[in-house]
Amino acid sequence: MIVPTMADMMAQGKQPEVLFWVGAAGSFDDRAKKITRAFVKILQQANVDFAVLGTEESSTGDAAKRAGNEFLFQMQAVTNIEILNAYEVKTIVTCDPHSFNTLKNEYPSLGGAYEVFHHTQYIKKLISEGRLSIDETTLKNKKVTFHDPCYLGRANDEYESPRELIKRLGVNLTEMKRSKSTALCCGAGGAQMFKEPEKGNKDINILRTEDALATQPEIIATGCPYCNTMMTDGVKFKEKEAEVAVLDIAELIAEANKL
Amino acid sequence: MQYIPNIIFALVLVAGIGFFIKNISKLIRNIKLGKSIDRSDQKSARWKNMAKIALGQYKMVRRPVSGILHVVVYVGFVIINIEVLEIVIDGLLGTHRVFKPILGNAFYGFLIGAFEIFAALVFVAVIVFWLRRNVINIKRFLSKEMKGWPKSDGNIILYFEMVLMTLFIVMNATDVTFQSGGIGNPISQFVYPLFNDFSSATLHLIERTSWWIHIVGILVFLNYLYYSKHLHILLAFPNTFYAKLQPKGQLDNLEAVTKEVQIMMDPDADPYAAPVEGTEDDVPEKFGASDVTDLNWVQLMNAYTCTECGRCTSACPANLTGKELSPRKIMMDTRDRMEEVGKNIDVNGGVFKDDGKQLLNDYISPEELWACTSCNACVQECPVNIDPLSIIMDMRRYLVMEESAAPQELNMMMTNIENNGAPWQYNQMDRLNWKDEE
Description:
The complex is a heterodimer of chains A (259) and B (438). Chain A is of the alpha/beta class and 259 residues long. Chain A is built from 11 helices and 8 strands. Chain A is 42% helix and 11% strand. The longest helix of chain A is centred in the first third of the chain and has 17 residues, at 70-86. The N and C termini of chain B lie far apart (100 Å). Helices cover 61% and strands 0% of the residues of chain B. Chain B has 2 domains: 4-31 and 63-241; 255-420, Fumarate Reductase Iron-sulfur Protein, Chain B, domain 2, CATH 1.10.1060.
């Protein structure tokens, strides 16, 4: 697929309307890369003039910061901010709520102030501007439940954008008993993604998958690559992968619009 | 001789309030052991938070059963305390129901009647609270950290309230003139017949005794606050006022680190530069927190404010899946250690003498700290905006930046970020490969 980089754009003397921050998971994790490509297809369908940093992008430092390594975080932040500011980036969109939170809330005081969108917010904006519409026939009446990412929901009080997009898919959304501000974490946040859990009687992603499966869904919708991994593993553990799909909202929209 | 009761009353009142003030000043001293943090911005948003969350109990009713019962006890407690004003004036002047002639029979009757109804409602609510803590198996009251004193503490507070409410009703029921007035006694009129067989002298004695135990009980309760988990009835207000206003996901950027990073990234910085004159002996700032004095004063106030309701712990994904972490325990440990440090300062003439202990390891284990997913469920749940996550994060910072004591897998993740800009070991140059992989 054709994905322009900021360097390409600059060479042509152009400034894209938005920078797509892909994130480490979206760039390297095989499952998350599918989400990245689905989102790019949506951007292309809506004729959004976007670019990525490509090999100039580096970890936001979110995981390092939450692991307690403020040094590494700030080194990463300063390096990224230097690049973003050199390209005069004003607007950023990302599929990763962790990058979203860090770029939006933690970069400004280090010299990087941008307008930052989570991809569900950005897609909602494209729809309200009339640049994109969602075909509500493809997935009509599919049974869907939505798992709120902590770093989108509680961390930034954004519960409605993902739900509005899900409603536009024409599917039946059933909320889990723990949802929105009471949603249970998938177990990946705070750098847990990169380590074994402490001793306990259950893994967090299994408990959360049980919440989701209790709604009898055909699809568990997510809005975060890490949640996606955790829920996919949970569904496999429960041996339900034949009946239940774990898909990012971007993937659902790409599927609905047959992209 | 006739002024003896007035004098005794005045002495009891002064002693009760004096002792309370002494403890409160100790509490303020302990909170000030914390580092400074500026929370003086956005005054109007802070007042609004306090009005909505502390005064308005907005977050309490997120859990309707305990929330509504709590509102009953809270409103009842505040309103019935208006009666204390009359009791104090009566006690000092030797009058009896001094407000009755001032307010007029009808209005006074209405007020006392309302107090009686609230007293009855509080009594019922407190009974339900007792059942919830002792009979119904509610998980958050049965956690490990709730064994022993914390459990007794919770019950003692409930007994206090039961006794105080009972005394208020008995006091009214045995006041013969008040009962014969037939106004303002919607509850006590049903208690009055229980005392039918008593002589008027005995009734008077019971009335006086109830009156005295009631007011002394209130003063004892006031002084019990500092030794119990019950300080939230006062501290909920400053605690919600000074709570963080930024998005919950936003962690602070450590300023000391920013300075170091700036020097590191500055190509003109001289690595061999001598320290600025006069700062040679300055101890470099410690990164993160290993003891209560490394935390800021808002975090320490949080610890005094915590009433150990356990809503945080009951929403914590780590705790729900059997891990050692309990956000409530983080707050309880912080307070216990702060009290220990405070007592140490008291017995050592105003200076802290190293006791070889600290908050980390002696109270909170690294295992608890590493189990946190930073999901903010505890912060979201707290009815008075306590932030256990900020303490967990500050202690992780100490473990990693001062002790290099992160779990091995996290060290690998961090090395990867340093080397190739991603938490996994991938080549930075492969970062855009995804576009050609379909």
